[in-house]
Amino acid sequence: LAIQGLQTEHLDKEKVDAHEQDHVHVLLLRVVSNDELAAVESCGQFAGIKEGGCHVLGCAYLGCGYSMKKISTRIQENEVRCETKTSDDVFVTIKVSVQQEVIKENAYDAIYKLTNPHKQIESYVANVVRGEVPKMKLDDVFTQKEELAKACRLDVEAKMKEFGFFIHNVLVTDIEPAAIVKNAMNEKDANRRLREAAVDKGEAEKTLREKKAEADANAVVKAAQADAEAKYLAGQGIARQRSAIIDGLKASLGAAESEISAERVTELLLITQYFDTLEKMSNGKATTVFLPHAPGGLSDLAEQMRNGMMQGAAGAAPMSAAMTR
Hints:
- The protein has helices at 2-24, 107-112, 117-132, 138-143, 145-161, 179-253, 262-282, 297-324; strands at residues 25-32, 36-42, 45-50, 53-61, 66-72, 76-85, 91-102, 165-177.
- By secondary structure, it is of the alpha+beta class.
- The strands form three sheets. A three-stranded antiparallel beta sheet has the order 3-2-5. The chain has a three-stranded antiparallel beta sheet with strand order 6-7-8.
- The relative contact order is 0.06.
């Protein structure tokens, strides 16, 4: 019985050891996302790079001995803010965006060579910005930001490639001078626009005055032409009126045209115009005019006009003779 008990105890111990041995060795499975790369380490030593999927790492004692370090394969963007000074002593803050991606073939370098890739990229970009911007004036920084972005990309791309990163693009997204400088620039631009507006307003007023003067001149010319035409037509009307009056007088006298002298015709015309003048004066404003009027005064008036015309003709003859000599 003692021997049998010892044998039974020995068999139970073997079963327990076999059962414990089954639980010591564990088959390890790890899942890697499709947008990640994982570096597998076995007992601290690099064992390989795994892409997206489910991977069997191997058997490990109590699940220990294997570990993974992951890195994203997505394009990531770093925003770098750097303050520096321009050549005209203006402090500006420049914001640069860097878009980088892990190179799958160089995943080992991307995982193990850099502790903080984002910080490293920020240092490289700041180094380029602080080296290029002090060579430019403030206005040139705004106009040459593409050249600044190109310089940053060439420098960062060459240096980050050895660490397993590919630089897709570098963009200068914002240039912000100091607040006092920004206000001064805005005020300067506002004054420039006010000056341009004043010049444009002056030019517009000048053009308006020129157009108005041209319009007034054209109006004066048109008025003069109209007045001349009206006077011409009025003269024709007066001439026709007088011709009709003379014909009427001749008819009323019942004499032939050859029997009436020029002096007689002139007297008749003067009398007619005298009465026309009296008629127009009576149609005017309420103004009192005293005129010597008597039937015998008409002959005196005609005599005075004839004498004046004869004296004028007599004085014009010697003058024309002297000018001829």
